[in-house]
Amino acid sequence: MNIKNSKVLQVENLSVSYKTRKGWIQAVQNVSFDLSYGETLGIVGESGCGKSTVAFAIVNFLGPNGKVTSGSIKFEGKELVGLSRRELNRLRGNRISMVYQDPMAALNPILRIGDQLMEVLTYHRNFSKREAYEHCIDMLKRVHMPDPEAVMKRYPHQLSGGQQQRVVIAMAMLNNPALLIMDEPTTALDVTVEAAVLDLVEELKSEFGTSIIFITHNLGVVARVSDSICVMYAGEIVERGHVGQIFENPAHPYTRGLLRCVPLLGTSKSSTVLRPIRGRVPPPERRLPSMCIFADRCGHRENQCVDKKPNLREIDPGHEVRCFKGERFLYISLRDRRSAQKVRRIGSSTCAEKEKPLLDIRKLRVYYTQKMRIGVKHIVRAVDNVSVQVNPGCTLGIVGESGCGKSTLLKAIIGLEKVRDGKIFFQDKELDTLVVHRPLDIIKEIQMVFQNPDSTLNPAYPVGKQIERPLKRFKTVPRKRVREEALRLLRAVRLGQDYYHRYPRQLSGGEKQRVGIARALASRPSLILCDEPVSALDVSVQAAVLNLLMEIQNKFGTTFVFIAHDLSVVRYISDYVAVMYLGQIMEAGPTQRIYEPPYHPYTEALLSAVPIPDPDISQRRIRLEGNVPSAMNPPSGCRFHTRCPRRHLLPDGGKICQEKAPEEHVIDKNHTIYCHLPIETLLELDPVVEMKTS
C-alpha cells in the first residue's frame, strides 16, 4: 500500500455545515484535494476561511452542531464519512494523528507527560508499560527533547511552549501514523523554536514517510515545508498547485493579495508599501452561491464575476484556479510583485537623527523576587543593565526570544514594573523609577498598545465610550467636543462612525487592535509602546495595521518602540533595532546595519530562522541548541555563550566567553555589537539571506 505517488487521502466535494440559531450555515463547500504518501499539503488563508473545519471534518471533530452534509473523505481507500465512533477511535491517534495550535489543549494538566505518552501505546498497540516507556523515551529523543527521562516525570506546566509542542508531536508520531494533521502548530512559538519544529517535521516525514496536512496563515512557513498548496477563501479552494507554482506565479487575485501583504526581509518602510486586501472575509450566512465569493474584495472584478460563479479549473499542468481571469495573472511572476512593492512612500521620514533623544534609558535593571519554597527566594534578572535611546519620530524595534526581557522593558518604561536600578529620561526629564505609577502628565505622553486587545478592552462598554474615557481623563479636548474627537479617532484608524456603538465582541481581531490604537492616540502621546501588536493577526490585517502606524507617525511625528517576533515586520517598520537576549542587549543599531554582516551570532541565528515566503531567497541554516537559560541563574560571562554556534572561532575555543562579559564594539554610526569575536571575523561571515542566482 505504501507506494510512492499512491493516495493516502482523497477528499471529494466536501461540504460542512453548522447548526446555529439561524438554521444550518454552510462553512465549507465543495472542497476537493488528494494527498500522496510522504507528501506535505499546505492549506493557507485568513481566519474564517474554513481551514481548520476541513481538518476537523477528516477526523470527525466537528462537535455536536457540525456535520458533513455532502462529499467523500477516503483514507487509504476507506470511506470515513458515516464511520462509527468505535471505528474512528481505532484510526484517531493511531493511523491519523493531529497536532493543535495550543499544545495545552492536547495535554492533560493533571497527568505527567510520561503517563500521557504511554497511554497512546497501551491503548492502540497493547504495549506493556515497560515497552511503552522505552518507546516514548526513544521518540522524545527523535524530536530532540533534552533529558527525556526527566521530561517523562514532569507535568505540562513545567515545560516551555516549544517543549510542549515537541511532546505533542512525539505523541502524534508514536504509532507511526500514515497521516499527520498540523493545525497552526508554530503560531505561538519563537522564531528559533519555530525553525526547529519545522526542521523536525521534515525529519519525521523523511524517516517515517508520513503524509502531512499543514494548516497556517504564515506564508513563509508553508513555503518552507510544503510540496503543494491549497489556498482557501470563505470555505472554498480558490487556488491549488505545487509550491513553486503558487509562489512564483500566483494566478488568483486573493493569493496575489496575500503575498502583497507580507513584508519581505530585505524591504523597509522608506522604499516599499504593503497593500492590504480591502474588506474582510464574509461570514457564512452572507456568502452568495451565485457569484464569485471574492468579488466584493477584488480589484479586478468584472460583470461576469457578479453574475456567475467561477469553477476551479486547470490553467497549467497541476495548477488550478477559481477565477475567470486566471490565465491573465499566470505569468506575472513574483519578481514583478516585488518590483510593484518598491514604491516610494508618500511623505518623508519623521525620524530625527541629530536631535536629543526623546527616550534615554541608562543601565536599567528590573529584577523580580520569586519564592521557590518557604524561606528561599530567587532573584529573576528580567532586564539587566540595558541602555538604549530613541529619537523623536523614530521607531525602535526590539527582537529576541520569549523570556529575553522585551515586554518587561516596556512595562518599566510605562511604569507597570518597578525598576531595581538605572535611569529613564523622557523629554529630558528623569522619571521616578522607584514608584510603579507614573504622574498623569507622563501617562498622557506615553501610551501602550498590547498584544491581546481582548485583555484591554472592557466587554461591557461600547467602543466609543472606551475611546472617550482617556479624552476626558487627560482633557485632550473640551468636554463638549469629546464625542466629535472620538469619531475622528475612529476615522483615523479606518473605522466608520457606526463602530462607536459596537461592543468588542462584535469586532474582528484586527478591528479590536485598531480600537486599541485609537485609544492610545486619544491623549496625543509623544511615545507609543507596541508589544507584539500584529503577531496574532492575519497577514492582510497585519499589513493594514502596519500601514496605519506609519501613517500616524508621518502625520503626528509619533515615536514608537515596537516589539515583534517576526524579524521581517521589525525590519520593515523600524529605523533602529535592538536585539535582546536574557535581559541584555546583544546588538543595536540602524536597521539596515543589523540585517547585513557583521552580525552578532545571536542576530545571525534569528535571521536564519525567519521563514521567508520567497523562492528566490536562500538562507544559511543556523540552529541554536537548547532553550534560553533561566533568568534566575544566567550564565557567567557572555550570557549567550551556552548556545553560541561561533565560539569555536576564538583562539581559546570560547573560554573567555565563559569568564568575561563582552565589551561594546562600535562598528559604524550607532551600530554596536557585544561579542568577544573580532569584528574582522564577523565581517568575513557570509550573509544569512541571499538572492538565488539564476
Number of helices: 24
Describe the main β-sheet briefly: 8 strands, mixed
Overall geometry comes to: globular
Percent of residues in helices comes to: 25-40%
What would you call the structural class? alpha/beta
Level-1 CATH class name of the largest domain: Alpha Beta
Q: Report the C-alpha radius of gyration, rounded.
A: 26 Å
CATH topology of the largest domain: Rossmann fold
Which strands sit side by side, in order, in the main sheet?
Answer: 6-7-8-3-9-10-12-11
Unreliable residue runs: 343-347
Strand count: 26
Number of domains: 4
Q: If you had to describe this structure to a student in words, what would you say it looks like?
A:
- The chain is α/β, with parallel strands linked by helices and 694 residues long.
- It folds into 4 domains: 7-226, P-loop containing nucleotide triphosphate hydrolases (Rossmann fold); 250-341, no CATH class; 359-581, Rossmann fold (3-Layer(aba) Sandwich); 596-691, no CATH class.
- Strands 6-7-8-3-9-10-12-11 form an 8-stranded mixed β-sheet, sandwiched between helices.
- The longest helix is centred in the first third of the chain and has 18 residues, at 191-208.
- The chain is globular and about 70 Å long.
